[in-house]
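Re: folding output
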Amino acid sequence: MLTEVTVFWIFCFSRVNSLPGFTTQNYNTDLDKCGKVHLTVSSLEETYLELNWVTKCDSMYDMVPDEIALYDKNPLDRNEEMPPRVSVLARRYPEGYYKTKVKFGSPWLPGNWEYQENMIQAEHGQHCFPYWIASLKRDMLIDVQCLRINPTWMFDNSHRIGKKRIGSVIIPGTHNSGSSKTATFLQSYVMNQDRNVWTQLVFGIRYLDLRVGYYGREGFYINHDVVQLAPREIIVVDFHRFPYPSNFNANIHESLLKVLHYELHDLALYPSGLQIGSGPTFNEIWARNKSIIVCYNEKEVSAGHRWLWHPIEQFWGNKRDVGDLKDFLDTSIKQHKSVLNPLWALMAELTPQAFDVIFRTNNLRKLANNVNRHVTKWVRSEWSNSSVNIVATDYFLGNDVINVAIGNNIL
């Protein structure tokens, strides 16, 4: 299985790119506000844009939306006539979800964040794609949001999260982060992401779940592009599994650790004195001028490497049903107790079973499409006060966990 590690960041911020009518203050701290909207990208191969809105409208003061609309420009800019590209009546879709026929594809990343060899600068802050969703009551806008990247969200909100401990905030992550490309005929059952690691980080993912394969003379399947454009973004790199070869022995581990030491050591945060309680605060990490936490899930091998953190506990349900997964994760949240590592991960994805592969049903895209909208609601409505830490998903653009996590963390 091909695994790629693109180590984001060293330096270079240019000017702040202010978005018309949209700033970090647009993160609505009332995450469950009636009519609040967000855009997602279908986890299925068509990558259609999806309209999502909060349908919980209990208060007599709630402004229940009549219409949900998709625009090519910010509708807050009223300087010109702006007909919607797509418009639906909210009452016809009581679940607060509508899949459009507008394809997202793989557009150029805004703010100069498209990866290029020898790139030296990019613009920090949020940057919007030309897709805006709005909820409306008659002609009044209730909420407006764009589909956006958050490449420097930790730095952007350092004044709000600096005193918070890394084990007590919500960290958006991806499951099997490096499996965005494969040439096998079983790609629908082994590919968990459709964006490479660089793109995941640019969107705002901060936890990478990696599985490493060693292929003899071909070496380890790791891409190491050291381009650091956001030095205060803290990334958790979890080398969690070593699936190939089946006898991934101590010698192979040591060879891998030599590669990792060469590539990551200078940026790695040493765990000495930090793996207690809920871990260090962001300010404490920044004070050490380090940006990567490297966890290695082989304690006996990594014991002699003081720059490696203990393995991260992952709660993986191995479920193919949304309800069963929710029950498992709820139980995990209640039973979890940090011991060796203050970081821990809910693996919020569904897993195909053997008969799914045999009969070519419920592949990873379909399963992600089934669960991703629910994960957004769980994080936003039910887990926001549960000391949830890492939430890792498949096909992460199919949910809004990144933006919900940021909104929750800056409260």
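--- second protein (sequence, then structure) ---
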Amino acid sequence: MASQGELISSVRVILWIYRILGLSRENNQSVRYRIYRWVLNIPFLFAYLFAMIISALHEENSEILWKDTIFIILTEASMFVKVVTTYCRFQDTFQLLQTSVSEEFSPRCPCEQERHRRVLRHLNGALMGYLTVSVITACSTAIHIFEGMHKLPTFSWFFGVPYGPDHGLNYLLIASYQVSGMVMHCALNVSGDIQITYLLAIAGIQLDFLKRRFEDLKEDYLVHLQRRNLIHHNRHMQLVEQFVQDIERVYSPATFTQFCVSAITICATAFRISSIDIRENAGVAIGMMMYLLSMTVEIYLPCYYGNEITRKSQRLTNALYSCEWYRFDSETRRTVKMLMIRTNKPMMLKAGRFFQYSLDTFGTTLNSAYSLFAVLQNTLVDSGKQGQP
């Protein structure tokens, strides 16, 4: 793969996260690292998720389940699919990252260089901010340790080990384990989001380059330059199309799972916030609000940049038509016509062949979350009225 120094800092950070947390599958790994991977993942991935699921089955009623557990379980389910996808498709992911900094995807002129630098600078700032806020949100679960109520940060059951005022050491060890596990899982979850967002943004930049290069064909007055540049642009478009298809193929299961659980996760998080007395539990309320923000951004990023790919690919046909094709020779005009027919169908990514990466999907998800939240609130109000004498 290309040097990591060529990647933006947020992507370099997630590669280090994968290496530290045992998901790296680079060639020629040492036996020590493979042992380290399993020693880390068995207690902090498999045992953690198993305890969380069993804890959900021990909840007393559905209201407690929605307030305390369901939003975490759904986020963990999405994280688990992302982890499995990253582990099983690690070489494919590295190949995509290599392509993103390859010579074929490099800007050619000062204008393209400035565009490339500006977009990646803004993207890197947004992704680093997303990573920072998400990790801080995960760390905020440690607030429960200092409240003195002996309530565990994430799930209430832990393999039957007693904890509470009479077992203070047990409580401290289990709570510390849950907080550290939540931070690790948050880092893995966000790393998958950063990875796919970066690759989608790269595809969008390349479509910007193609649009400009198609329009600049009118400046080539020599026939051999027209043909050579058109052939090169056609080859570049094929590379971009293949790049987008590979992104969809590699990340489709993870993104599909994310879209499936997002509405319920956002609803459950908002439901819990509505049940918290902000004056008495300001720290918990702020942490939950940050969690809600992270969950919203988590689905917004692929929807926005996927929507940009569709929108920018739709502009290629007009760019080709604007290149003064009528001045070209007959063979070059035929090539332009074939390209225009080809670009008439915009690039659209789908998760699981069902959810489209678009802002419409983002809006639909938020509408579904709000509708479910309203149903839950009305159900609680009705049940409260029935319980009154």
